[in-house]
From TrEMBL:
InterPro entries: GntR_C, TF_FadR/GntR_C, Tscrpt_reg_HTH_GntR, WH-like_DNA-bd_sf, WH_DNA-bd_sf. This is DNA-binding GntR family transcriptional regulator. Pfam families: FCD, GntR. It comes from Streptomyces caelestis. Coiled coil: none annotated. PANTHER family: GLUCONATE OPERON TRANSCRIPTIONAL REPRESSOR (PTHR43537:SF24), TRANSCRIPTIONAL REGULATOR, GNTR FAMILY (PTHR43537). Signal peptide: none annotated.
Length: 226
């Protein structure tokens, strides 16, 4: 039987709600989703809740274990390294292609996205949830803008999936902002290189940017376990 429009809408709405909370770091590592509780709280059927979580598990944002159900992933050092490595390669391809193919409209989008990001205060989730959500959104929009003109829907979809996994790791790591790193300066340098159409420099800066985040995440996770 075909899914009704109402069921499809409820499924997508729930999927977006859980995804948004995952990316904000609202769930602790290892948190187990109880389908009955989730469906009751959000006013959907257990089937709709299961489908939304299944979709998230297919994207690597939620873990599905036999006889245990769905839970928030507890990334190992090896997984953090792997996500960073693959994201770096995919993001670099997308940005390089965008620099080669993007027009003035794309270039203007990068400038606007960076301006929005630079004007948005960067706060930790536990310090200021609202500010954190605004910065997280602006940060996502900036990196999306840099890759937007790559002219490959599949590449963009894969880039988004890797970005989401990286974002969950970053939020869970609860990085100490402003210590030993100028994140705003890193974004400014990337934006400048992209707008200048210097693909080699933009990719190098992007590699460095993601690598520093990877190291910071590993350090934060190690410190939390001691």
């Amino acid at each position: 039987m075909a899914r009704t429009d109402g069921a499809e809408t409820r499924h997508h709405t729930l999927y977006l709600e859980i995804r948004r909370n995952l990316l904000r770091g609202s769930f602790p590592v290892g948190h187990r989703f109880k389908l009955s509780k989730l469906s009751t709280e959000l006013g959907v059927s257990v089937t709709v809740a299961r489908e939304a979580l299944t979709r998230l598990s297919e994207q690597g944002l939620v873990v599905l274990e036999p006889n245990k159900g769905f839970s928030v992933p507890n990334f190992t050092d090896a997984e953090i390294n792997d996500v960073a490595f693959v994201r770096t390669e995919v993001e670099s391809i997308a940005v390089r292609r965008s620099i080669e193919r993007g027009g003035i409209e794309w270039e203007s989008g990068v400038v606007a996205a960076h301006h929005q990001l630079s004007a948005t205060p960067n706060a930790a989730l536990d310090e200021d949830p609202e500010a954190n959500a605004l910065w997280t959104s602006a940060h996502r929009a900036f990196h999306e803008a840099c890759a937007a003109a790559c002219d490959s829907p599949r590449l963009l979809a894969f880039r988004t999936q890797l970005y989401d996994q990286s974002e969950i790791i970053r939020q869970m790591a609860k990085l100490q902002r402003g210590k030993r790193r100028d994140v705003a300066g890193e974004h400014a340098a990337i934006a400048e290189a992209v707008v200048a159409r210097d693909a080699d420099k933009a990719v190098l800066l992007l590699h460095t940017h993601i690598e520093r985040t990877r190291r910071s995440c590993l350090e934060s996770w190690a410190a939390a376990q001691t």
